[in-house]
Amino acid sequence: MILVTKAIDATQLSKFKNSLKNRAEHAVLERAVTKNGILATTADYHSEVKMDPVFSIDLDTGDVANQKQSGRCWMFAALNTMRHDIKNKFKVPKDFELSQNYTYFWDKLEKANYFYENVLKTASLPTSDRKISWLMTTPQQDGGQWDMIVAIIQKYGVVPQSAMPETYNSSKSNEFNSTFNLKLRKDAVKLRQMVAEQASDAQIEKEKDKMLDDAYRMLAYSFGEPPVKFDFAYRDADKAYHLDRDLTPQKFFEKYVGWNLDDYVSIINGPTEDKPFNHMYTVDMLGNVVSGRQIRHLNVDMKTFRQVAVAQLKAGESVWFGCDVGQESDRQKGIMDTELYHKDELFDIDLNMSKAERLDYGESLMTHAMVLTGVDLVDDKPTKWKVENSWGKKVGTNGFFVMSNDWMNEFCYQVVVNKKHLPANLQNVLQEDPKVLAPWDPMGSLA
Predict the structure, then answer these.
(1) What is the tens place of the pLDDT at every residue in 153-208?
(2) How confident is the model over 115-139, as a mean pLDDT?
(3) Which of 369, 277, 350 is nearest to 77 (CA)?
(4) What DSSP designation does 43 have?
(5) Which end of the chain has the smaller Cβ count within 10 Å, N or C?
(6) In whole angstroms, what is the distance from residue 374 CA to residue 157 CA?
């Protein structure tokens, strides 16, 4: 059946106008919304009362960090979970941080190489192909996934922020990203031309090596060159002085973090028809370190999703998680709650969509990563969650947010937990070969 195309006509416009005038409240609502905007007009005071930042489980994690004008939330969140552990073990100061600039440098270099490899793998496809369009839209970006930070740490280790502090470009990344993506797109033209002209593997590899040499120089100028060895000095919470000399990034990770990163797994809740629960998934062309850690997600129902997060918090360990932070949230007050605004009531329109519908139709996807540091359990069931953000202390309660359990259900998509917290049947599923999702699948979105 072919639908007949019809333009809006004068009769319809007259009907629309009359329909509006027949609403007794239309004048006052028009004045309120035009003056104050949609969110302020629909904000619900009761949500703020309900989201009081008091929790039955509340981990002491120190001061919040600040990613500033960069998209490194996934990296900040991951390093924050590790520094929480360092704080507990070594009594480092509450403002201690691991160097986000260090992992940022290596992530950028590895993403460049990963991009080149994807360009070469798809060189036979026309530029009009959707995969090529997807690759060239954003050759690299600040965002990432848990498995990607693991790949970086497993290869390069970590360092304290004192060993590689922030720079202008790490804290305000737009200038670098636009310049770096220009270079990568230019390099893609060259690589595709070489493949089309049937250049030898050795010739292509030589050219790619030169491209990476250029990339390293750009990174070194913008972020500084990463340390190979460094000293680590600090005063602990008892004011005792400590000095650890000649550390490498790998030795620092081994001594001060000491995690077996293979124990930590990505759990997602993607309730769409193409992703049955209790199975493994990966995403085509998504990653950073070639031959490094693969993106792997275990898709579970929301009950299991919450249970494993609570289990890890009960064990005294914070939880990396990914969500759609812009949905139903107040950045300044630090509240994420499905009852925060009532836009449907204002416009008298049903705006409800299921979680699966929002994913399938582009209304929602993971946009931000943070850390769960607490939960309020009533009758052993979560009602609200404490969230450590990476937007500095001037938002929320000294940088911490409150998330309702309903908001978690609707807008949280990923948690990372130690696999020991999974039921035995799901631990077995972790060994399954993952189904490969398309590069543009919402579960491949980067926080």
Answers:
(1) 999 999 999 999 999 999 999 999 999 999 999 999 999 999 999 999 999 999 99
(2) 98
(3) 369
(4) B
(5) N
(6) 28
Q: From CA 162, how far away is CA 27, in angstroms rounded?
A: 59
pLDDT of residue 434: 98
Q: How far is CA 258 from CA 2, 91, 160, 255, in A?
A: 63, 16, 14, 6
Check: CB of residue 71 under 8 Å from CB of residue 141: yes
**What stretch of H or E contains 57?**
strand 57-58
What is the average pLDDT across 363-373?
A: 98
Q: Please name the residues in contact with 106: beta carbons below 8 A apart, sequence gap of 6 or more.
A: 152, 155, 156, 226
Q: What is the mean pLDDT of residues 205-217?
A: 98
First to last CA, the chain: 41
| DSSP-based three-state secondary structure for 98 | strand
CA distance 350 to 328: 16
Given a cut of 80, is residue 1 above it in pLDDT?
no
Bridge partners (DSSP) of residue 384 are: 376, 404
Q: Contact 353/363 with Cβ under 8 angstroms?
A: yes
Whether 87 contacts 62, CB under 8 Å: yes
SS3 268: strand
In whole angstroms, give the CA distance from residue 285 to residue 437. 10
Q: What is the rounded average pLDDT of the residues 219-228?
A: 98
Given a cut of 80, whether residue 4 has pLDDT beyond it is: no
Distances (CA, A) of 179 to 116, 139, 173, 184, 217: 16, 11, 10, 9, 13
Catalogue all structural domains in the chain, each as residue range(s) with its CATH number: 44-66+260-446 (3.90.70.10), 92-259 (3.90.70.10)
How far apart CA 418 and CA 371 sit, in angstroms, is: 14
Q: Is the dihedral of CA 228, 229, 234, 240 positive or negative?
A: positive
| pLDDT of res. 3 | 72
Q: If pLDDT is split at 50, 70 and 90, which confidence band does 87 have?
A: very high
Among all residues, which ones are annotated catalytic?
73, 368, 389
